[in-house]
From TrEMBL:
Record flagged with keyword Oxidoreductase: yes
Record bears the keyword DNA-binding: no
Assigned keywords, A-Z: Oxidoreductase, Redox-active center
Catalytic-site annotation from UniProt: 61
Region of interest (Disordered), residue spans: 1-31
Protein name listed in UniProt: Redoxin domain-containing protein
GO molecular function: antioxidant activity; oxidoreductase activity
Organism domain of life: Archaea
Coiled-coil regions listed: none
Length: 173
């Protein structure tokens, strides 16, 4: 797993957006509904929060992503975009965004190296290959300034710590 002070890789991956989820009927998604995410793009405007999670529509991940949805308004004042990241396909991510009214994009680690590049791919158990639950704050210069990894099920990051890390990375703290 990347550590504080490491350079974040400039990953590129498919992304499901709230706009695309709203514009297309569920079950009718195509490649035209998928956008490209490149970490360097949002970093031009300030720090970025990446929340890795095992998979949409699972009990714990649904709870976490909805908690982040509700918390996202707090980050709006800090002007830091939040992206969820999992190995799910972009189409299942679009359906999840639609189902739970998420207002932030979800990045697909399906068939690319984004999960590996951040060092959060689960390597053991029947669920090997999915992402471990982890959060990173990346500063505009691409440096990782905050990390968190779940050590047991049903644990989530302290959003106050994430907010403080974003403020520090943005130079507002």
């Amino acid at each position: 797993m990347l550590e504080i002070g490491d350079d974040a890789p400039d990953v590129t991956a498919p992304m499901a957006t709230p706009e695309a989820a709203r514009e297309t009927d569920r079950g009718s998604y195509t490649g035209d509904d998928v956008r490209e995410f490149s970490l360097s793009d949002p970093l031009e405007d300030g720090p970025v929060v990446l929340a890795f999670y095992p998979g949409v529509f699972s009990r714990t991940c649904t709870r976490e992503l909805c908690e982040l949805r509700d918390w996202k308004a707090d980050l709006a004042d800090l002007d830091a975009p939040l992206y969820g990241v999992s190995v799910d396909s972009p189409w299942s991510l679009l359906a999840f965004i639609d189902e739970y009214d998420l207002q932030y994009p979800l990045v697909s680690g399906f068939n690319n190296d984004v999960i590996d590049d951040f060092g959060v791919r689960r390597e053991d158990s029947i669920m090997r290959g999915i992402a471990n639950r982890a959060v990173f704050v990346v500063a505009p210069d691409g440096t990782v300034t905050y990390t968190w990894k779940a050590t047991e099920p049903l644990t989530f990051p302290d959003t106050d710590e994430v907010e403080a890390a974003v403020a520090e990375a943005a130079g507002t703290k």
